[in-house]
Amino acid sequence: MKLEKISQLKEKLQKETDLSKIWLYYMDEFGDRPEFSDLGEPVRQDFLLQVIAQVCQQIFGKPTNIDGILTIYLKEYQFYHAPFVANNHVGGVIFFEDINTGLIAVTSAASKLAKYSRFTGVAKSDRNDRN
Q1: What is the mean pLDDT of the chain?
Q2: Per the confidence metrics, is the pTM higher than 0.90?
């Protein structure tokens, strides 16, 4: 695993129009590697929880329960990432604090299709509140 690829992920997040390519790059390079998560620290990030809930409500057309979220923060890269479950659908989020941009991916167990949403916003630092 080459951590310098995080800068390539950030660039893709800012420029790539096909959101699935961004998510696939993240999963291929980082997402499926436990050693990547071990580099960060677990945090509570209320901004990301709110964004995930809003996006999932738009996707599913109803208020959505967000469960099983484990947000990891890599301070050196100002990068958050987390898996979650939304109404029994597996999802994930990535977010770069320095550019205030992130991506949410939510899969449908029935169709095996994914829906993506890029978002921007300013996250208030709440890293002192551990999950």
Answers
A1: 88
A2: no
Pairing assessment for the beta strands 101-107 and 66-67 based on DSSP bridges: unpaired
What percentage of residues in the chain have a pLDDT greater than 90? 63
pLDDT tens for 8-24 read 999 999 999 999 999 99
- Sign of the four-CA dihedral 16, 90, 102, 26: negative
Q: What does each C-alpha distance from 24 to 4, 20, 38, 127 come to in angstroms?
A: 17, 6, 20, 27
CB distance 29 to 5 below 8 Å: yes
Long-range own/partner contacts, residues 55-60 (CB < 8 A, 24 or more apart): 55/104, 55/106, 55/117, 55/119, 56/86, 56/87, 56/89, 56/91, 56/104, 56/106, 58/117, 59/86, 59/106, 59/115, 59/117, 60/86, 60/87, 60/89
